[in-house]
Amino acid sequence: MTYTVTVENKGAVAVKGLVITDAIKDITTEFADGSNAQAFASWTIDGVVSTEDLSTTINLDKDESKVFTIAGTLKPGAIGTVANTASYTYKTNAPVISNEVISVPADPATGDIKIKKQLIKQHMFQRILSHIL
């Protein structure tokens, strides 16, 4: 799964010291065995392998934007929804939270699932009956 976090300064002045966070380690999902656990086995932030959340301080001129790209690999067996938000904090104000992004792991294609039944042992009664008929 790949996400982008876009931060834009639409104000009339530059912004200095904007703290951007995305708690990737806190993202959980349901697994096939019924458990809930951390969703991602690994992830990159802007192409760099990371084991940490996105947490950085940036400066933006007016009308400037910054995009962070987060690509995560779900742990095997993940079947539930994956929900996440990012946020920014400026000066001492409370964090401003982004819209929530919800995604669902892809279901396997019908052709990927196989079922097979075969005869392992035939009962003696069925063999006798087949000889009589």
Overall tally of structural domains: 1
Helix/strand structural class: mainly beta
- CATH fold description: Immunoglobulin-like
> Order of strands across the widest beta sheet?
1-8-5-6
Instruction: Name the average pLDDT.
Output: 83
Give me the count of strands: 12
The whole-angstrom Rg is: 26 Å
Discrete helix count: 1
Question: What's the CATH architecture name?
Answer: Sandwich
CATH class descriptor name: Mainly Beta
How big a fraction of the residues is strand?
Answer: 35-45%
How much helicity do the residues have?
A: under 10%
* Alpha carbon gap, first and last residue: 61 Å
Largest sheet: 4 strands, antiparallel
- Shape, please? elongated
N-to-C order of helices and strands:
EEEEEEEEEEEEH
Low-confidence stretches: none
Describe the structure.
With 133 residues, the protein is mainly beta. It has one domain (2-107): Immunoglobulin-like, CATH 2.60.40. The chain is 7% helix and 44% strand. It is built from 1 helix and 12 strands, in the order ββββββββββββα. It has one helix at 124-132; strands at 2-8, 15-22, 28-30, 36-38, 40-45, 48-50, 54-60, 65-74, 82-84, 87-90, 96-97, 101-103. A 4-stranded antiparallel beta sheet has the order 1-8-5-6, with no helix packed on it. A 4-stranded antiparallel beta sheet has the order 7-2-10-11, with no helix packed on it. Strand 5 and strand 6 form a beta hairpin. The longest helix is centred in the last third of the chain and has 9 residues, at 124-132. The protein is elongated and about 85 Å long. 11% of the residues are buried.
